[in-house]
Structure formats: structure tokens, C-alpha cells
Amino acid sequence: VDSYAASGLPAGLSVNPATGEISGTPTMAGTYAITLETTNVAGSRTATLTLSVLSPFAAWSELHGVLSADSDTDGDARSALMEYAMGSNPAVVDAEPPARVAMVDTGAIRKLEIEFVIPTERPGVRYGVEVSADLISWQQGHAYGTGVINGPGLPTTQQDYTALPDNGGTRVKVRTALPEDGASSRTFLRLRVELAAE
Fold first, then answer.
1. How far is the C-alpha of 171 from the C-alpha of 161, rounded, in Å?
2. For residue range 5-60, what is the model confidence (pLDDT) as tens digits?
3. Burial of 94 (0-12, 13-18, 19+ CB in 10 A)
4. Which residues are registered as beta bridge partners of 188?
């Protein structure tokens, strides 16, 4: 064989014309019909290869035998999507919550604070802090993930966004923007995770 070619490759993959090796990392999930061609002095031949590229969450789900994003294989009240987003194993009961919420004193003012760690290698996940006064209506606060922009007027303030050593992820701390007076109002914080649109 004198040369190799491939057409219809997903973005992120390429073919080496001398060896025929297809390499790279696909950037979009989907099913691709790839036309492979080899050429030598006698002519050329083509064949079609069907390549299925899974999203990172779908590949993780397949690896761990997860049936849906909402399933809870280990019965720890944490969905498979939350297990994926927080870097935990869906077959092992988690003793620690995915996020810690506490009342913090900032001088004479008390505010509610949520802290969590975004693990490395979790593409396609959006992490959002939400605020509620009644556990029914939730307002979007700070959010994190690819393409997320936090604009002005959010009901939260970011306190910390620090890369942890040894590729341990990123620690995030977010507080309510308004102080807690404890008597007339109550505020709740939660962490919501969702898959970004592909």
C-alpha cells in the first residue's frame, strides 16, 4: 500500500497517509460513516467503517453499568449524574455529601456558604449553585463549566475558586449575597449538576 486516506472522520481525528493510523480525540459524540481508502500501483480500494463516539458521560455510564442519569445503583440517594459530576463510584455508597453547606460569620454579618470540588476530567458538566427562600422556587446563582459566564446581579458571591494540588480538581466556595438575619427570612443553597447540550 502506497497511501491511506479517510473521509467523514469526526472532528478531532485524523489519518496518517503513510501508515493508515487514525488518531486523535473526537470532540463530538455521534455515529459517523467513515470512508477508508488504500492506494497502490494496482489502483485503490475503499471500505466504509461505522464509528460510534460516546459522550464522556455515556462512556462512563457504559463502563459502570449505569442505566440512566437518574439511577442510584448503590442506594446512597445520589444520582448517577451526580456521582459522575463529583468523580465518585456509582457502585460504592458515598459517606461524604457532594457539597457542604454552612453558616459563616463575616464580622457582624452571617451568610450561608456552599463548598464543593469540581474534579478534573469532567467535560460536559455544568455545576450550578441555586438559592431559595422556600425550597420550591430556586434562583440560579454562580455556575461553572464550559462556556458558563457569571454576570452581574446574581444572588451569590464567589469566595474561592482554587486549583487543588496533584490534579485534585478545583475547590469552589460560594456565599449568599444577602446576609441572614435569622428571624424573618430563611435561605437555602443547593448544588445542581446537569449535562451541557452536545
1. 6
2. 999 999 999 999 999 999 998 888 899 999 999 999 999 999 999 999 988 899 99
3. middle
4. 132
